[in-house]
Amino acid sequence: MSDQNPFPGENNTGHYWDGNLRELLNPIPKWWMIGFWISIAIFIGYTIWYPSWPLINTHFKGVAGWTAMNEYKEDMAKIEAIRAPYEESINKMSAAQILADDQLANYTVRSAKVLFGDKCAACHGTGGAGNPGYPVLADDDWLYGGTIEKIQETITIGRQGMMPAHGSRLSDQQISDLTKHVVALGQGSEDAAGKAVFMSAGCFACHGMDAKGNQMMGSANLTDGIYRFAPGGADSVKYTIAHGVNDASDAKSRNAVMPVFGKMLDENDIKKLAVYVYKLGGGQ
Ligand code: HEC
Ligand code: HEC
Question: Which of 103, 138, 164, 172 could form an SS bridge with 280, CB 3.0 to 4.6 Å?
Fold first, then answer.
C-alpha cells in the first residue's frame, strides 16, 4: 500500500479518500497514557485496600479491614466518650444542681430536646409553645409552679386539675355575671355583681380571694389575662364555668390530664426534661 501512498513518509494508515483525506496513526499523547496507567493502578490499589470484589457467598474484605459499620462504631464511641462524663454527672446531681452548672445545663437542654419532641410535643407543642387545651410551657405562667422541683414533680406524678361544673348549680344570670367578672379580671378590672357570685358560689375557695389561683391544686390565675383554655374570652370562660374541668358528672367537661411519666421514663430523663422545661423561658 505504501507505494501507492501519496503522502510518503507520513505516519498514516494508508487509507485515504478524496485525494487528500486520510487516517493518521499518531500515538496517544504520553501525558494521557500516564494518566491512564495511574488511574488503573489506583483502581487496583483501591480494590485491594477496601472491600470490593463480590465472591460467591461473601465479598473480598480488603486488606485495611475497613467497614462502614466499624467507621460508624468508632464515631459513636467518640460521641459516647464526650457524653459519658456529662451523663454521669446528671446521674449524681439533682435537677437544681444541674441548672446551677451552665455547661451541664446546656448539654442537658440539647440532649432533652429530642426527648421532649418524642414525649411531650404532641400535647404541649414544639418547644412548649402550647396547643389548644394544653398549657404553654414556654412562658412564666404556671398552674402548678415553675420552680425546678415543681416542674420535676409535675412530670413525675402527672397532674389533673379538677373544677366542678357549675351549670346546674347556678342560674344563667349568675353564670353570665361571673363570666363578666372573670373576663374583667383578666383585663385588670372587675364586675361588682359577678364578684358577689364569685364569693357566694365558692369560686374563691379554689381560685383564692384575689382570684390569683392556687398552685397546690393548679387552679388557674384568673387575673393575668392568660387563658389556660384557649381562646379565653367570654364564650370560653363561660364554658369552663358551666362544664368545669375533669368533672366526670358533666359529659362536656373540659379534659385536662397531664400523664404520669414517673413509670415511663427513667429518673435521668425526667431530670433532663425538667431542666429543659425550666429553661424554655418560664422557670422561676
Ligand atoms: C397527653 C397530653 C400530654 C402529654 C403527652 C404531656 N403533657 Fe404535660 N400537661 C398536659 C396537660 C393537659 C396539662 C395541664 C394539666 C392540668 O391542667 O391540670 C399539663 C401540664 C404540664 C405541666 C405543668 C404546667 C403548669 O403550668 O404548671 C408541665 C411542666 C408539663 N405538663 C410538662 C410535660 C412534659 C415535660 C411532658 C413530656 C414528658 C408532658 N408534659 C407531656 C398534657 C400533656
Ligand atoms: C374545686 C376547686 C375549684 C372551684 C370551686 C372553682 N374552680 Fe375554676 N378552676 C379550678 C382548677 C383546678 C382550674 C384549672 C384546671 C386546669 O387547668 O386543669 C380552674 C379553671 C378555671 C378557669 C379557666 C381558666 C383559664 O385559664 O382558662 C376559669 C375561668 C375558672 N376556673 C373560673 C371559676 C369560677 C368562676 C368558679 C366559681 C363558680 C370556679 N372556677 C370554681 C378549680 C376550681
Answer: 138
Mean residue pLDDT across the chain: 93
The pLDDT of residue 224: 93
- Residue pair 142/284 in contact by the 8 Å Cβ criterion: yes
- Measured from the Cβ of residue 213, the count of other Cβ atoms closer than 10 Å reads 21
Same domain, 144 and 181: no
Closest ligand relative to 245 C-alpha: 2
Instruction: For ligand 1, atom 42, name the residue with the nearest CA.
Output: 258
Per-residue pLDDT tens for 248-272?
999 999 999 999 999 999 999 999 9
Q: Which ligand is nearest to the CA of 122?
A: 1
In a domain? residue 275: yes
Residue type, 221: N
Q: Which of 163, 136, 123, 144 is nearest to 253 (CA)?
A: 163
Please give all residues whose beta carbon lies within 6 A of any atom in ligand 1, as ranges.
Answer: 119-120, 122-124, 134-135, 137, 142-144, 151, 154-155, 159-161, 218, 256-259, 261, 273, 277
Name residues whose C-beta falls within 8 Å of residue 186's C-beta, 6 or more positions apart in sequence.
Answer: 222, 223, 224, 225, 227, 232
Query: Mind listing the pLDDT tens digit for each residue in 193-217?
Result: 999 999 999 999 999 999 999 999 9
Distance 219 CA to ligand 2 centre (A): 6
